[in-house]
Input
Amino acid sequence: MSPRDEPDWDATAYEDDHSFVYEYGADVLELLAPAAGERVLDLGCGTGALTGKIAASGADIVGIDSAAEMIERARANHPELAFRQADARTATFDEPFDAVFSNAALHWIDEQDAAVSTVADALRPGGRFVAELGGDGNVAAIVDAVLAELAERGYDADNPWHFPTVGEYASRLERHGFEVRDATLFDRPTELEGEDGLENWLDVFADGLFAPLSEREREAVVAAVEERLRPAYYGDGVWTADYRRLRFRAVYRPEP
Ligand code: BEZ
Output
């Protein structure tokens, strides 16, 4: 990942409480359909859970992530695989790839054209780009509640993520020489376990939004956000986050 307000990742909290990030990624893997002997790049590989699954298909995989802690954990989880700390906006590779895969990483990148350009440069002509990211409206209820609480306290903040529409992303891919074969935006309400589920999610993923706050103010904002969202998003001991995903498969067809 290549962040604007990317948190200081806590790889343990990410793996222990938010494993749904890569568990849901199994569907994207199906769309990738990696084959033995293919060279595949996992962009924003996190702790390497899906990288390991791609490797199990016999593909030759390289995982990159901008977060040192994620790469360290990925190497510990899969010492046999190749991982590199690299920024998706600027990374370069010696050998072309047959496919680039990315799950839940692209929405962290503020310079989307730079990232798509990296992917295009990494692929051989005819290679595929298969990805899922937060789509238009993703976690809108959570973001709106946090921004409203910050505004009430005199803080001005913006949504730190990029959650594109199908039209926006398909056009961007086409401008970079991709033929878009599939692109879908869909709701995926996502359960966050326990009374602390929302607070834990905010801790792991939304640190940037709280940057200007003291610890006390942060606790007050989180409590107020919970009260705003509780009637519609909490029940039977489970919070539900209003995830929406954009999933696509595109083929790199550069102009001759
Ligand atoms: C997501 O995967 O949709 C997401 C994760 C963290 C923050 C925002 C969105």
